[in-house]
Amino acid sequence: xxxxxxxxxASGEKRRIGACFAAAAASYDHAAALQREIGLALLDELSxxxxxxxxxxxxDLGCGTGFILDQLAARGVAADHLFGADLAMxxxxxxxxxxxxxxxxxxxxxxxxxxxxxxELIISNLPVQWLDGLERFLAEAARTLRPGGxxxxxxLGTRTLAEFERLCRDAAQPSRVNRFITKDKLxxxxxxxxxxxEAQRRSRHVRRYPGAWxxxxxxxxxxxxxxxxxxxxxxxxxxxxLGGRSRLxxxxxxxxxxxxEGVPASYDTHFIILRKPD
Length: 278
Known about the structure:
- By secondary structure, the protein is an alpha/beta fold.
- The protein has helices at residues 12-23, 25-31, 33-47, 67-74, 89-98, 134-144, 162-170, 183-191, 212-222, 233-240, 244-258, and strands at 58-61, 82-86, 103-106, 119-125, 145-156, 196-209, 263-275.
- It has a 7-stranded mixed beta sheet with strand order 3-2-1-4-5-7-6, sandwiched between helices.
């Protein structure tokens, strides 16, 4: 098999994102109910197209602590055929303790340290929005999949956390909601991908929180500091010196008035399944 190209260092922004997730490794499993829900939905979607290959090699990109690998093992995939890759080493360490038979690698999804045609199945549940570009991710997946192999991934769309962004804006609280891929950009990337689109759907997953602070606290526990301005450590410190605490109090007050039954956090989720031609 052809050796992969030399792996270049991750971008500075990606290293910062990796550091956020690394710091959240201890709290991630407790806070990741939505991620598990979406991951199970992705696996159900995939099962309608392909049987999990018990003797085929499966890679989970952005594996975190290994929830998807646990599900693949429960569906019959042999432990020594399971691979997990993530930028956050503490996440990998937790996964390795729970499932030592799998193989765990600290790796960038856009610069994979694997040979060509290494896997029958690649799954990636909600890390794609943190990458520098979807095109490189799709190219690397195509390179490392065997002919006839499958790629299944989820990513977040532009309506994600729209309610929280409006709340911040109306409370004059600066927000830093992440830039998510537009429908048109996603369509263009998939049309030009070296893989064949087999299925695509979009759904809205909503969770409610007792207040804006509770939502921001969970984002921090997940490592998603970059989703919202107040939870970003450096920006939060800067805001605190400019009367930021009073703005956060105003945000919490407005959240209670507007959403007495709980602050909604919506996740606009794209489910994508592609296949490499034989």
